[in-house]
Amino acid sequence: SNPLLLFPVLQAAHCQMIKDLSACLLGQNLRVDCRYENKTSNPLTYEFSITKDNRKHVIHSTISVSENIYRSRANVTMHKNLVCLHLQSFTTSDEGVYMCELKATNDYTGNQIKNITVIKDKLEKCAGFSLLIQNTSWLLLLLLSLPLLQAVDFVSL
After folding, report:
1. How many CB atoms lie within 10 A of CB 11?
2. What gap in Å lies between CA 73 and CA 88, rounded to an integer?
3. Which residues pair with 98 in a beta bridge?
4. pLDDT averaged over consecutive 10-residue blocks of the chain (157 residues)?
5. Helix, strand, or coil (residue 22)
6. pTM given for the model
7. Residue 145: its pLDDT value, please?
8. Are strands 17-26 and 124-125 parallel, antiparallel or unpaired?
9. Is the distance from CB of 31 to CB of 23 less than 8 angstroms?
10. Do 82 and 34 form a contact (C-beta atoms < 8 A)?
11. Where is the Immunoglobulin V-set domain (predicted)?
12. Strand arrangement of the beta sheet that strand 29-37 belongs to
């Protein structure tokens, strides 16, 4: 048997598996959560795109160049096992098939891709705790409110 055949199989065990792709509305903004199972410590690259009218438009990406019309409205946050796209001022013209593509550096299994159809009227509101993740300055707010809390304690004494 050819020992070289073993190599891709070993690599396959390290692939980034996208587990789940979900979308929700946070105020006027769209949030798309791309959850994956992390099987490697290699750096992760991603691409969020939308297909509408049979054309693919890149919204935010580390793999290719994103389109101007989306670049100013989109940002991506990365957490443990989650890559999160935030698209501001989501309207019906942003409806379409959203795609999350993940690739780990030096991974030979190829890119992992998952799609979700996003229609404004069918979107759920994001769960409450997600505000914490979406708003990266929540920690700052927490720190700013600490003196307030201490002042309240002081008054109750």
Report:
1. 14
2. 5
3. 50, 116
4. 49 63 94 87 89 93 91 91 95 96 74 89 78 54 61 54
5. strand
6. 0.69
7. 64
8. parallel
9. yes
10. yes
11. 29-102
12. 74-79, 82-87, 29-37, 17-26, 124-125
